[in-house]
Automatic annotation (TrEMBL):
The gene is nadE. Its EC number is 6.3.1.5. ATP binds at G29, L30, S31, G32, G33, I34, D35, S36, T138, K167, S189. HAMAP family: NadE_ammonia_dep. GO terms for biological process: NAD+ biosynthetic process. This is NH(3)-dependent NAD(+) synthetase.
Length: 247
């Protein structure tokens, strides 16, 4: 990949989408991870002085917030911090009546974890709406292909500038953009629970996934696993089904 060429294309793409929409700027959720760092750096180039970083810790590690602040400084964008931890706790209590008599523990853990990205989605839209900004998503091709994101959570966005780049290409772009090496080297994680990592949860490494997406090469078992993730997440990449009504 020619990182300079890709960078220019994506900045121009963001500029064009921003202009077409009539919106006044771009908002990005900053987690301290590489995807949001790259998305923020591109947004800042496309809308200098009109890009906002939004930090939304929700029982998150303090190091994540420090990294996110570092990214905002490095990229040169203003940021706001919204601590969602108390909101999450109150909501968890308020949601008690929605629980079935015997909730499956695995389902309960995932449902509760997915509340975090969904709270971030509404917070980010609020920060964007009050400024007339669009919400820039950070999903990359590897995540989109496997459905490794929360529907209407971090998947609920206006633009996906990184959507055609596999994770390794996002890393190449991060190096081209001269983002801090510590951010580039971080283990990819959704940060939804202690010790979570993308590769651990998916059971696939990004190297394997990216190789399959770029070259179509994978061992049969791996291929089956990736295609199964792709199949069951199809609904996330489409609008909700609408019945055709016969009148
Ligand atoms: N066939 C179908 N047609 C229409 N809708 C369908 C459906 N199958 C499921 N659904 C719906 O989709 C729901 C499942 O999707 P969803 O709610 O997203 O939940 P799910 O995919 O189960 O969980 C989200 C996954 O993304 C990961 N994640 C989340 C957030 C950020 C990141 C990150 O990398 O930063 C990663 C997270 O760790 C977890 O593995 C079902 O509960 C159901 O409501
Ligand atoms: N604590 C947070 N504050 C603000 N935004 C967040 C936070 N956690 C997650 N997000 C948003 O959700 C997006 C999805 O998270 P994801 O983990 O896939 O990306 P990342 O953290 O940028 O990179 P990596 O995948 O390498 O961890 C982030 O890019 C960011 O926009
Ligand atoms: Mg992350």
């Amino acid at each position: 990949m020619n990182a300079g060429k890709v960078c220019d294309q994506l900045v121009r793409w963001l500029e064009a989408n921003l202009q077409r929409s009539g919106a006044e700027g771009l908002a990005v959720g900053l987690s301290g991870g590489i995807d949001s760092a790259v998305a923020a750096a591109l947004a800042q180039r496309a809308a200098p002085g009109r890009t906002l970083g939004v930090l939304m810790p929700c029982h998150s590690n303090l190091e994540d917030q420090a990294d996110a602040e570092r990214v905002a400084r490095h990229v040169g964008i203003p940021h706001v911090v919204v601590d969602l931890s108390p909101v999450y706790d109150i909501l968890a209590r308020a949601l008690q009546p929605t629980l079935p008599a015997e909730a499956d523990p695995g389902r309960l853990q995932l449902a509760r974890a997915n509340v975090k990205p969904r709270l971030r989605m509404l917070t980010l839209y609020h920060a964007a709406n009050v400024r007339g900004y669009l919400v820039v998503g950070t999903g990359n091709r590897s995540e989109l292909y496997t459905g490794y994101y929360t529907k209407y959570g971090d998947g609920g966005v206006d633009l996906l500038p990184l959507g055609d780049l596999v994770k390794g290409e996002v890393r190449e772009l991060a190096r081209y953009l001269e983002l801090p090496e510590a951010i580039i080297q971080r283990t990819p994680s959704a940060g939804l629970w202690e010790g979570q990592s993308d590769e651990g949860e998916m059971g696939i490494t990004y190297a394997e996934l990216d190789r399959y997406l770029l070259e179509g090469a994978a061992a049969p078992e791996l291929l089956a696993r990736i295609e199964a993730l792709h199949r069951v997440s199809r609904h996330k990449r489409e609008l909700p089904p609408i019945p055709r009504v016969a009148r």
